[in-house]
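Review form for a predicted model. The reviewer records the input and the model, then writes brief findings.
Reviewer: anonymous (R2)
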Amino acid sequence: MELIPLEDEITDVSEKKAPEIRWIQRVDEVEASTWDALAGALPTPFLEWEWLHLLEASHSVGAEKGWLPHHLTLWRDDALVAAAPLYIKSHSVGEFVFDHAWADVARRLDIAYYPKLVGMSPFSPTIGYRFMIAPDENESQITAQMLAAISHVVRRYHLGGCSFHYVDPHWGRLLEQHDFHSWTHQSFAWTNHGYQSFDDYLSIFNSNQRRNIRRERRAMPNQGIQLVPLTDDAITQDLFPHMYRLYADTNAQFGPWGCKYLTKDFFLGLYTRYRKRILLMAAYQSNTDALPIGMSFLIVKGDRMYGRYWGTLAHANALHFNACYYQPIAWAIENDIRIFDPGIGGEHKIRRGFKAVPNVSYHRFTDERMQEVLRLNIGRINQMEQANIEDINNDRPIAQNS
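Model under review:
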């Protein structure tokens, strides 16, 4: 889709000099330090310059992938005061919001649903998306100005609407003032309630599940497998192409339902550009000089940890549970991690101590009929999803509330 330069973009008037709106097609049109002066203060790591730039430079996102970058930036003189990663989408793949039912409603009404504008970090179903705004700016005013600019682009390019996914809850409330409707979805999270050790953590479970977890943990030494956490300089360069192979192999098992969106170049670029945020939980069988037989790939920022990818070359009993859940939780306890987001999907997470939690997306359709359908039905849909979250949590095998 060819985009026209936006010479006539609108601006708002505020007490300060109104910021200038600039739309950019690549995040590297802004210096990394300038972008991260806004992104670095946020809890989420997935809006930082290096992560977004790697997605673009590795061709994991781009027009040919149906993820056309169209980022919004606001400048006052030479200072970046706000920014929002945005993408013009020709499909809904890789968003993990599963809005196909809305697309079907649009089709039945003979309304164009695609292309649409989406605000999120691509392929990253983790809570925390928001407009990045300098702390000395008026958040409400800047958000309103950015939403007005977005509305202008949506109309100009005849887009089906605008959505923001996995939104930061505090910032999301501002969207409700601008005719965006919230849609509740289900995620998982582990919360550290001041545990002193993994055994301390096990005390929250009922006796049967404590035995099950201990048995699954013992399965590692019983099979001669050692799980080693690797961070920063302990992560050698050869582990990144290996992680790509494991990632690709895991997705290949799901055929057309796989989620293989990242290129090999993305993983190779992580070594020099983003290693500081990475935790690899590497599974070795007897020889730590050889490549691991399996690995989980996690991102850490501050007191939060995010499980992203995993793969194995061996069929080892309980390796998945240990590499992706038990050992990262043990590491989280030792390193004062407060929240561990293991990724979406897989209700087996409940039996490992994770809790179902809501995440929220916000939507505003261009066509008034679609907007009315959304308004009339979203409340009932959200009630059903909240009931589903409660039902999932009722099956947690715990001895006490946690």
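Findings: The chain has eleven helices and 15 strands.
Further findings: The longest strand covers residues 181-191.
Recommendation: see findings above.
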